[in-house]
Amino acid sequence: MLKRLLLLLPLIWLAACSTAPRAPTSSSGPSFGGNARYAPVGFDQLPDWKAQQSGTTLLALQQSCKTLQRRAGWGPVCSEAARLSPDNAAMVRQFFEARFVPWQLRDGASNTGLITGYYEPLLAGSRTRSARTPYPVYGAPIDLLSLDVSAADRARSVLVARRAGAKRLMLVPGKTSAGAGEFELNPTDFANDGRGKTLKGRIDGNRFVPYYTRAQIAQGQGVNTAQVLAWVENPVELFFLQVQGSGRIQLDDGSFLRVGFADTNGYPYQSIGKWLVNQGQMTLGDASMQGIQDWIARNPSRQDELFNVNPSYIFFRTLGHPEGGPLGALGVPLTDGYSIAVDPHYIPLGSPVYLSTTYPLSTQPLNRLMHAQDTGTAIRGALRADFFWGYGTEAGMYAGRMKQQGSLWLLLPKGVNPPA
Hints:
Blueprint: E1 31-33, E2 36-40, H1 54-68, H2 75-83, H3 89-99, E3 100-107, E4 113-120, E5 122-126, E6 135-138, E7 145-148, H4 151-154, E8 159-163, E9 168-171, E10 182-185, E11 198-204, E12 207-210, H5 214-218, E13 228-232, H6 235-244, E14 246-250, E15 256-264, H7 272-278, H8 289-298, H9 303-307, E16 314-318, E17 339-341, E18 352-358, E19 365-374, E20 385-391, H10 393-401, E21 403-413
Parallel strand pairs: 4-20, 5-14, 7-9, 17-19
Antiparallel strand pairs: 1-2, 2-3, 3-21, 4-21, 5-13, 6-13, 7-11, 8-9, 8-10, 11-12, 14-15, 15-16, 17-20, 18-19, 18-21
Helix pairs in contact: 1-2
């Protein structure tokens, strides 16, 4: 959605998507998928491979295996991983070397791409609205509906749909006018990021129309049918909670409420950092999360103007696991410092990925065996990744400043090839 150098905020996965590997074949040459190129290499070509602290990365793999063990070629690997102890780093490294093949990723002629960071925010809030906590964290509105439309159908000017469930519509093939219980729509009325096929909208008479924008929702449109999960103190932190996609809210009694992505109003994310740069309000180098927060503090009267640059709005749901990391797109808890969000068109979700980059605002190497457990709307391309730093203020400082270049190696079990 956004070009790499224009992504000025860390973005979290908004929708789950899995990519199954190809059927195993024998291949010693490079494999291609779109602009991506995959070339098998030896572990000795991974920077600092022998220095890896493998215990935590094994625990992350064991989490991924809750899903991976059902995929072709992964069952024996996951069974063996379950029997290993994270305390024996040498044995863990030997396991990866014996069971996996590293595939170096290239995007066209390039072997480096943008590595950003994200984290799990902590907000102060309450179950009840008060002068201290006036800002609502909304669940998905009842009137927010989804409709899957193919690329071919999106080129048509009139489609007809009918209800297929409480929150879903389905197309009625061959019709151009609505009958009883049906709704007309023009697909070109809906925002399109060039990739998604799901339209988000609402019923207006006998028409299916786009859902409300962020600015309209801020004025109270649509959310009269949405449950308020909590009320929070700070609207800026609430905006960044939406950017991250999940977080924790500390309530009045000291307990924590964990919330995660439930749905979106269907509009592509627009970078408020990019807008500030284009308006001459800050430089590209200052357009970090912290830089944007500082700008808002200096320009409080323009806060809503800035937020409404991004028409996308995220609705949340409460999560039932108060401990551990937030759930990623793979459906397992993320591991602080060992999970990344990737583009699943090029990196199958759950796969180990060796990352070679640097720490934020630094040339200090950051070489680590990560795990592709999440996705994000701005994470596009074979060499694009979002590094999960964990939970709280310190993690947010790292995540907000991370805009590094890095290289990736996809690790797949022997006999499993990269995606076509």
